[in-house]
Amino acid sequence: MGFKCGIVGLPNVGKSTLFNALTQTASAQAANYPFCTIEPNVGEVAVPDARMEALAKIAGSKEIIPTRLTFVDIAGLVKGASKGEGLGNQFLANIREVDAVAYVLRCFVDDDIIHVEKRIDPLADAEIVETELMLADLESLEKRVTNLEKKAKGGDKEAKLQVDLINIALIYLREGRPARFATREGKIAEDDIKAWEGLNLLTSKPVLYVCNVEEASAANGNEYSALVAARAKAEGAESVVISARIEEEIAQLPDEDRSEYLETLGLEEPGLNRLIRAGYSLLHLITYFTVGPKETRAWTITVGTRGPKAAGVIHTDFEKGYIRAETIAYADYIALNGEQGAKSAGKARSEGKEYVVQDGDVLHFLFNN
């Protein structure tokens, strides 16, 4: 698994252009008019990780299999979407299925591309998106709570917990604050996190602000992206500067020409790489590897995952029958030229069920069938 990221924003901010570039497809029609994307488009990209080539070279792997990131491009949002304006609730349900939401914000000036609000103000754009999602959450919770209150009064413990959590969410939403702030501010007990996530609120999902800038600002951003970065920092969110136009051009180049093109723009890497890293940081994700002659493969887990759960990402049987994990840190694997060198140097460890997997670990699982 990688993670599933929904791309939302007002019309004509560059969402579909970005989606097309990132997934190297033209399945989302990018055009200069609202609602050119009328169905959610789903695309997968490989997560770039330079460590894989180094591991595969040492192990003589025939194949490199990276982990995957799923993007969902969702139709352009306008004021009143929560009440059915524009494409309305058609797209709101799609946001509920993602792990994080990327707000694509227009941080460039171009008179040839019409802004639906007839101005360039990324913070105001973010407020429109956030407000519509909050209104949708508010309506959803107010419909649910009455029935749950009846069950809670009848002694249903699960219903009582849901009512308590809904009331916390309603306080935030009625104050004009997204539900994710409740978690950030410690209002949700650790034991209740799963139930909180079960409410499936649009505004409880982590947010990544994507500042779509003109080509000249792709390396360092501009005054608009600086405002967004300040907002993200204040919220404990992530932000990334990217030029959808540049990403579109990169996607059309042969692999061997991309580095030279990036260099001419003063960029060290494609925006996709920065976007993925920001997403991983936002969702507290890390990568471990399985390495052998057949393949070098990456697996994505959350920070703090123990051995059995990490094994379960490969197959549920690995988790059920977990015995131990033969473990080598990435740096040791590289420095000591592979598994045998690490074992000879005493850097290969046998870890049990309580081991917390670290980013870059090279793992071999032993389990009972």
Radius of gyration: 23 Å
Number of strands: 12
Strand coverage percent: 15-25%
Total count of helical runs of at least 4 residues = 15
Shape: flat
Instruction: Sketch the topology as an H/E string, one letter per element.
Output: EHEHEEHEHHHHEHEHHHEEHHEHHEE
Mean pLDDT: 87
Largest sheet: 6 strands, mixed
Cα separation of the termini: 23 Å
Structural class: alpha/beta
Helix content: 40-55%
Structural overview:
The protein is α/β, with parallel strands linked by helices and about 375 residues long. The protein has 15 helices and twelve strands. It has helices at about 15-25, 50-60, 90-95, 120-155, 155-175, 180-185, 195-200, 225-235, 245-250, 255-265, 270-280, 305-310, 315-320, 330-335, 340-345, and strands spanning about 5-10, 40-45, 65, 70-75, 100-105, 205-210, 240, 285-290, 295-300, 320-330, 350, 360-365. It has a six-stranded mixed β-sheet, with helices on both faces. A three-stranded mixed β-sheet has the order 3-9-8. Helix 1 (about 15-25) runs parallel beside helix 9 (about 245-250) and helix 4 (about 120-155) runs antiparallel to helix 5. The longest helix is centred in the middle third of the chain and has 32 residues, at about 120-155. The radius of gyration is 23 Å and the shape is flat.
